Amino acid sequence: MQRDQIKVGLVGFGTVGKGVARILHENAAIIQKRVGLPITLTIVADTDASKKSLLPSSQTSFVTDYKKVVDDPGVDIVIELIGGIEPAKTILLSALKKNKHVVTANKALLAEHGEELYNKANKMGLDIGFEGSVAGGIPIIRILKEGLAANQIESFYGIINGTSNYILTKMTEEKLPFESVLREAQRLGYAEADPTFDIEGIDTAHKLSILITLAFGTQVHFKDIYIEGITQITPLDIEYAREFGFKIKLLAIAKRRGNEIEARVHPTMIHEGEMLASVNGVFNAIYLVGNALGQTLFYGKGAGELPTGSAVVSDLIDIARNILYASSFEPQAPRVRVPLVSFLPQERKDLRIKPIDEIESLYYIRFMVLDNPGVLSHISGILGEHQISISAVIQKGRLAGETVPVVMMTHRSLERNVRQALETIDQLPYVSEKTLTIRVEGEET
Amino acid sequence: MQRDQIKVGLVGFGTVGKGVARILHENAAIIQKRVGLPITLTIVADTDASKKSLLPSSQTSFVTDYKKVVDDPGVDIVIELIGGIEPAKTILLSALKKNKHVVTANKALLAEHGEELYNKANKMGLDIGFEGSVAGGIPIIRILKEGLAANQIESFYGIINGTSNYILTKMTEEKLPFESVLREAQRLGYAEADPTFDIEGIDTAHKLSILITLAFGTQVHFKDIYIEGITQITPLDIEYAREFGFKIKLLAIAKRRGNEIEARVHPTMIHEGEMLASVNGVFNAIYLVGNALGQTLFYGKGAGELPTGSAVVSDLIDIARNILYASSFEPQAPRVRVPLVSFLPQERKDLRIKPIDEIESLYYIRFMVLDNPGVLSHISGILGEHQISISAVIQKGRLAGETVPVVMMTHRSLERNVRQALETIDQLPYVSEKTLTIRVEGEET
Question: pTM here?
Fold first, then answer.
């Protein structure tokens, strides 16, 4: 079969969709130089008919019904960029059924229904590109599937939600409370009108689940991931963290120990000297340890029209190269070169995610207590009964009879013990609000 | 053809060779899960027969004549890890002639004779893997060829020589002179007995030339790269840099403007807030700007048995995946999926490297002068005559009649003007030694 181009159809012409169209148009020459043929956006679907005027090329036709894209016999690759579960899932499954490769940036869908899509694509011998689903400006999917393929991945730590990192950065730099920074972020377009997914850690957990699948060769049941957002963090905690030499970041954490993994998302204190501590604003980064290459860090923009567009187009280039490379294949032969989720389907293994109660960590604990004599010794007594030992205490200002913060850093402790101790402590009459804990990553000092 | 394994032959069983053997052995299970078949090291050649005892697997045979590897009809992929130009070049060309894919980590060979090898491989439809040639622990070759393929690369800045970065880091942290840190690095094995390639910037330039080829789609004539090492840097300059808020790093710099590029290696001052400024010790990093994804940074170990071994094995995995993917191909079909140097051979274009005289930069200039009245005004007068304007001056301590350092920071200036001005200034009777300049990257402040 002699081809003169690779034809692409796109469903969903929002921010990222526009970025994809723009990159395919503006970087057409350089893409053709790298692939050997043009990659042409032949058809775009969006329910909002007014978006037709935003198409950068007159070669592209515009429709309002996604079925026209999926059913178009000329289209080699269908891109889904509408987000959410439905109709995104139906679009991808229908395109696979029509024997088309697909590309998506839909992390929620992959986190919750990825297995069904991977299975369908594997059965059809088709590819699913999802480089745009995590950290658009960092080619982390391809790095895990190819660049680091010789490694057993031991652990990784990611700042992979730009909105929450922007909010924590601003709270740190300008000593402002969460709510006012969130409002500012919404005004600037860095946070959505309903910011729940970002600030509650759900978006981070979606991406964590995709990365774990690739890194460890396991299915992830999304509900097993422990998730805690940033809404409880106050400027006071950021200031205490600074005094201890830490920054507070919303981290996605994954560690493998034998057949068990830790998979959790929560605000975390990390030493200010760590490279992750310097990742500010809407930038993303992933710090990763492999058993051969040691420590690495990948840093870039997390989202946006062009960074995520660049990731989506890198998937198109990869699939286009495979199509061209395989163009002398039997039509029945599989057309996926690199296993969809980095491991062969039959070689994946279910690893158990440790419940949060079973993890061990260092902890920052902030109590709000009435400043009475004996309070400190009572609290530390209860912690001691739960096998929690304290490495540092800060209590500033003394205001007999007033509520003051008392901050403790612990040695390595079991989460279950911390929770049980705090349940008891939070019922004491002189504890005036729910005690806040922030897990600390790093070695004991 | 039904295969049950991919067979690999290795020439050169030094540090990296041992790393490759160890990774193929210890990570065999995970590699097979990702590829679908085992990748087996069947034969190793090294002129030192005593190395046979270091083989991790009894499946591997050992020979002292590399020709037995190249001629072995069972071998699918030949790895060259002996370094240097010959016989490395002959080994790779003979293996290609014998219809085998090849993998190398030989940056000097690729920088100086890469085109001959790429041409031969393209003619044969064979692959050359060289992920191990630059920054072993960072999959930067694959990132440029695939992850960022949708981008026009605009510029990049690399710390890509661990030895010189280790020396500059130690000089900075411990305020020690170059020579004593070099001796310490030699003692610890971080610098070779003859450290010329590392400390004079040649190794960095070899790697820069490979990255430019991939990023910009051009041939690089190695001699056109401007190269300056770190031997002239003193603790005094590092201290002045600190006062201005800078760190000194040996950078590989590449910028593209239309059909011209800058390609240079020299000690460079960068703001201490830049992520590259925090890359310390033997770590490497590459900061890169693409027209779609914006700014990214990739960080990891630069060299060593396992990091570079990991890179070499990632090439084996890539080629193995291609072999399996294409196993139903006609034998005559090309077996390279991604163009060797990121662009199709016919789509590459020769870009001119600007001679160093034509670049513009900010400059740190350290004069050693006799502390006489009028010296400062005379020197700044000469700079002014050459269109060089000064943004800051530091002259500490006054010792009439003694030699003292006078440090100036300039606004953006043309290199040629700086050189001409200094030629004049260095002949003044009260200038007591050759004036030192360090280019400063960053915006005017």
Answer: 0.90
